[in-house]
Amino acid sequence: MKQSVDPCLGREWELHQLHSLLSYAESQNCTKTIYIYGITGSGKTHLLNHFIDCVKSAGKRNLAFSQPHNCPAHKLKFSIFNFIKQLLQIESTATDMVITKKVNLVASSSLSYLRTLQLLGFSLSKNQRNTLAKQTLQQMNKIDQQIAYDLIDYAVHKRIALITIDDVHHLTYTQIQFLRLFIEIEYAQPILFILIAQPKDLLTSPPDWLSLAHTMPLKQLSLDAQTRLAKHCLAKKGFAIAKYQTEVKVAIERAAGNPAFLQQLLLTPDYQSFQSTKLQQFIDNTLADMPVELTELFQYAALQGFHFSASQLTQFTHKKHIHAPLCLAQKMLSSGLVVRESDHYSFSHPLIWEGIKNHQPLFIKNSVK
Questions:
Q1: pLDDT recorded at residue 274
Q2: Would you say residue 358 lies in a domain?
Q3: 224-255: per-residue pLDDT in tens?
Q4: Are 111 and 130 found together in one domain?
Q5: Tens digit of pLDDT for each residue in 292-340?
Q6: Do 164 and 260 fall into the same domain?
Q7: Shared domain check, 315 and 243
Q8: Are 50 and 172 in a shared domain?
């Protein structure tokens, strides 16, 4: 029997907004998009899973996509190929003949038929390839837009009410260009799209193609919400809440409104240091995957404090003889670990700042003063 998803403590307003926008899409017979974003641990995926459960309980169908590297069992792996197949309700065991018949059924023109087969990875004949090659860029865009309309129309015919895509920041440029076809225009079909992302990579800030989307930043939880979440977390583990009041207070202070960090701190066995091993491993792995000079820049910035200035970054890049300092600073912002404000930079969370300071080896301390 499937376990129920934990309640969205502290995210009740956001959950209400999701329900309201789904009802709006259905009543106005139009597609709507919600863009939910926030730093790691802010509860984006949990909110989404809770809402998906509510939609399923109401007897409505949904398609839930995630990224291949981190795709849970109950979600579909996102790719242009898989996205089209799922919208067309094509089974994984379907033969090429079955697929081509379904595409021919749904496609509204011979060009959209050929283009859909091309996107699905079919080998086209020389004449078919030449036909598509003769189309101008503007004509191809119109064909792709028609494909999006056809796919949405068929999904509604199959009673799909909700389409969600998690970790959108991991999409490639080509995948985002395809997804834009479904997002930039409000079609006259009752489907709600929900996109989830961290502010990083191609989505460091909300892009123009999401201008029609309802944006929903997940901010820090209030003190009351954190307290309720902490009590729920301890009770779920069978702990006596009265015995952990001091630990709850410290964890809330250090979590600074981040629900995942709060739960990690409450479940840590080391109540003296109150450090999250899971978070430290995440930061260590993130920094290990970066170029050495970028890792060094992060550690140097962390030594300057939670806030640091552009001039301090310049001091580092000059001393290290970095050839493209602006590019390196942009990579820092694109990581999602740092945010830029009007006149300074800040780490996205105090525990992320702390984790970067604790990252080994800390050779920066001796090399840059």
A1: 64
A2: yes
A3: 999 999 999 999 888 878 888 888 999 999 99
A4: yes
A5: 999 999 999 999 999 999 999 999 999 988 888 889 999 999 999 999 9
A6: no
A7: no
A8: yes
Where do runs of H (alpha helix) occur along the chain?
12-28, 44-57, 80-87, 96-106, 110-119, 126-133, 137-157, 173-183, 223-236, 245-255, 259-266, 277-288, 292-304, 310-319, 325-334, 350-358, 364-367
Q: Which of 296, 331, 336, 342 is nearest to 316 (CA)?
A: 296
Query: Per-residue pLDDT tens for 87-96?
Result: 999 998 999 9
Instruction: Judge if 149 and 86 occupy the same domain.
Output: yes
Whether residues 341 and 205 fall in one domain: no
Question: Which domain, by its residues, includes 36?
Answer: 12-217
What distances in angstroms separate CA 11 from CA 18, 90, 183, 214, 266, one per listed residue? 11, 35, 25, 16, 20
Alpha-carbon distance of 249 to 253, in angstroms, equals: 6
pTM, two decimal places: 0.90
Cβ 279 vs Cβ 347: under 8 Å: no
The number of distinct structural domains making up the chain is 3
Q: What band does 74 get if pLDDT is binned at 50, 70 and 90? A: low
Q: Is 4 among the domain residues?
A: no
